[in-house]
Amino acid sequence: MCHIPVFCWITATVLEEVLKTRKRGELPKTLTEMYIHFLVVQSKLKKVKYDGGAETDPHWSPETRKMIESLGKLAFEQLQKGNLIFYESDLTECGIDIRAASVNSGVFTQIFKEERGLYQDKVFCFIHLSVQEFLAALHVHLTFINSEVNLLLDKQSTYCLPKLLWDKPEPTNFYQRAVDEALQSPNGHLDLFLRFLLGLSLQTNQTLLRGLLSQTGSRSETKKTTVQYIKKKIEETPSAEKSINLFHCLNELNDRSLVKQIQQSLRSGRLSKDKLSPAQWSALVFILLSSEEDLDVFDLKKYSASEEALLRLLPVVKASNRAVLSGCNLSGRSCEALSSVLSSQSSSLRDLDLSNNNLNDSGVKLLSAGLESPHCKLGGLGLSGCKLSERSCEALSSVLSSQSSSLRDLDLSNNDLQDSGVKLLSAGLESPHCKLEGCQVTEEGCASLASALSSNPSHLRELDLSYNHPGDSGVNLLSAGLEDPHRRLDTLRLSVCKLSERSCEALSSVLSSQSSSLRDLDLSNNNLQDSGVKLLSAGLESPHCKLEGLSINHNKFTGFRVTVALQEVIVSQCNLPFSDGNTLVLSGCQVTEEGCASLASALSSNPSHLKELDLSYNHPGDSGVKLLSSCGRGLTERSCEALSSVLSSQSSSLRDLDLSNNDLQDSGVKLLSAGLESPQCKLEALSSNPSHLKELDLSYNHPGDSGVKLLSAGLEDPHWRLETLRYGQIGPYEWI
């Protein structure tokens, strides 16, 4: 309710008065207490402003009591009828003279407002539905306490808030039947009414209304019995939303025992291991939704990787921006529940990961109903490894074709879709309403995809066909479409696709095309051979090439020859126009010292572009590392990880390493230090391996006073052999 402007105004009004008048500064703790205080404030305002009384005078004057009773009667009768807007005749029936009330009653003017209807008729309403519900509950409570009459037994009522009591109007029965009727409400319209009604049963709240009530008093047995009854209903209620309201009711009765149990489990970290009762699950939902922490990402595994847990925690999923439900043993039953969440107008869900669950085609069909809802705002959906077939593609194709769909990222990897499935999916991709930007389809079907991309080329940005068998012919079909000037595809992943050098020829043509938008290409784990890389290099050298990221690791190269080909590319003035963060991945390419020499030469000729070089799972040797280090300008912390591995190697004899003028950052130095600490390292570490290091140059860095103090503490160590320490920024080195 803190997002409702009227409630914020009520809260501010009450807090201002309470802080001004209460010496101890005790603030209202429940919703009922807040609204009672608001009513008291408005009654005091009327007494002083309209009646000319003093602030110390009793504020429950006969006129004020009559006005509140009349407004309460109006609120209750119209709530019974389901009306939020009333006419002057409705006010007259409840004994309210609109003209006299608007002139003389501050209470009336502050909580009631007048508007013009469609035909310029005067219509009236309370400033907010919660005010109407509070006054309705107050009216029922006052009548029950003052007259021992249960208004909810009125057989003349025309609305579905009927007979809460058929027997003697005992308080215990009165509140229990009120709970039952609220739970039976199909749309929850009695939820807030019930909270106020139960809150008004407390002695502390009745004391605040002294003067309005002819008598006060509530037996502790009544409260205890009501609390136990509500807890029993929480155990029995399958609806999470209704259970949440019952926790709010317990809060109004100042009972937080269930909540405290779960809070203790959360703090101890044993929640995911405990077997929770339905009431405890509901308590967890209440805690998560009431928490001040951001509900940006909900990860089911933090609580329990089970379908029961998901169904219990659905309100939390509904309130989150992203739900991570991967590998949680979910089935089609979960899909039906999630479909309801997606269809809800109040849902905040934007990203849903259901990967690695046995949803099957039937589950996706149920989910699709929610995805097609005009209220669905989901932009990302992960269905990797969900045992789907081509039948799921038909349902998802319908979603992609829907005008109301917001889906932009769809992951269908690791499913057995077959070419027939991709063909069905392609029908959705061809729709002008399709907004898909990222699609990881694990099937062949390149011909269907190429056709779909030609029909609707403007949206798809990323295509991942890794771990498929498109073949060189499939890549040729896709490549032809990628040269279309209307295509916006910027990422193509073809890892582990059994491609040969023939694919490189087609892709080289794409890279050379002036109209191509391709910026990231993954060809790792294929059989490209040296000839394929040479073909690819021709495209990379084109002045029209926009590629920023290239991965060709784990291909069958001879090592030296491939780096010669890449050297020509790197040296070229118009090759990969590397910007910040651009990467060349050559891991597992059998690169040796000779290859490093070629790469070093290339990097020295064109040092301004390449920011990251991955040579993991190669054999560069110490000499190769030294060659690369000598030309490494603009390296980042990622390079430190590889160098750390070299320093830790038993076979390494590297004793001199120059990494100056690089953007290693503190994180890079931390990675490098792991290698320096190794007993195999011949470069020497500062703390764990202090006996070797003789010279340390930190010039043109920002260690700060605290950093220098840390180093100084180490210099006092008798085992350190550091002779020279340089630091400083601009100008001559400062020697210590």
UniProtKB/TrEMBL annotation:
Gene3D superfamilies, A to Z: Ribonuclease Inhibitor
Domain (NACHT LRR and PYD): residue spans on this chain: 128-261
Annotated SUPFAM superfamilies: RNI-like (SSF52047)
GO CC term, one of those recorded: cytoplasm
Key words of the record: ATP-binding, Cytoplasm, Leucine-rich repeat, Nucleotide-binding, Repeat
Highest taxon listed in the record's lineage: Eukaryota
Location(s), subcellular: Cytoplasm
Domain annotation NOD1/2 winged helix: ranges: 66-126
One Gene Ontology term of the molecular function aspect: ATP binding
PANTHER family: NACHT, LRR AND CARD DOMAINS-CONTAINING
Name by which UniProt lists this protein: NACHT LRR and PYD domain-containing protein
Originating species: Seriola lalandi dorsalis
Lineage, opening ranks: Eukaryota, Metazoa, Chordata, Craniata, Vertebrata
